[in-house]
């Protein structure tokens, strides 16, 4: 299957998607067929903060049409925060759209986890992954979600995580585990792998990895749309 990725939201996340997807497909003995288009992270941030789902969906739809013209069989949004307009995008898309949130929900259900903590954009945390988690309860950090979201946004835009930013996110996750009963913390921001590049001292699940596993299965024929 020829995968179509909407990248650039942000660039660091796109590179990690590409790197991990190529590795997973190789592990499965397959050959990766993939096309990547570059979206505008500043447009995404503005639409997300304004909750302008239709405008972002229309922007995605134009990128998806480019992917369709390139011969892709499906489209992928390489940003968890970018899923805020998933239903609207799906309605406009000229290709099947492969969600990152649905397989994450299914993963936790298979693991028997009942409550997980969220780290990501302010709207990801505030809406508990846009209400797209159906089988697992998600909790957000106590505190100013806009400030936490801005902290994440800074990492996504620069593609770099400082020691202070890493320490802040580690502490937010620890408090959700110890004070709010989270059984694991979801990195629900694609660029958070830049912060959690070492052991945090509690269970962490990178949403990107779950999505990439599904995409690798699709690419190699182990799964179907």
Automatic annotation (TrEMBL):
Top-level lineage group: Bacteria
Gene3D superfamilies, per the entry: 3.40.50.1860
MF terms in GO: amino-acid racemase activity
Entry-linked SUPFAM superfamilies: Aspartate/glutamate racemase
Name of protein: Aspartate racemase
Organism: Pseudooceanicola antarcticus
